[in-house]
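Folding problem:
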Amino acid sequence: MKTSNFIYRFIRVSIAIGSIALFFNPLAVQASDHESECFNSVQGKIPWNDDKNMNWEPKNVKQLCAGTTKPAEPGACFLSVLDGRVNWGKGITWDWQNIINLCAGSNNAKNTVGCFEQAVGKGLDWRDAILFCQRADK
């Protein structure tokens, strides 16, 4: 009888500890800290269009910053593409949403942009290049 009580308590404590570890994962907290820092480095500081409007729709900044562990990189990526240095195959003027799609969660702006330029340079369609480079950065 005492052994079964011990096992029962042991299982309950193990489940409780496991639940706490699952819900209070420091990596999840850290990631959201990076995303918040990224949000603050973009909103009001980096223009999202050619008119130099720096007032972003919050959901767009969140999409850009989602998943990054290097808060400065998604904004740097976005800015380098917006500034007209990246040819997508038919010119250097981009739709802002496509820039977000390319740069979302980037941990290395230079590598993300370089990946895209290489992929398009090898004949990959710009849409496929964005998808390829999103996966390559993770």
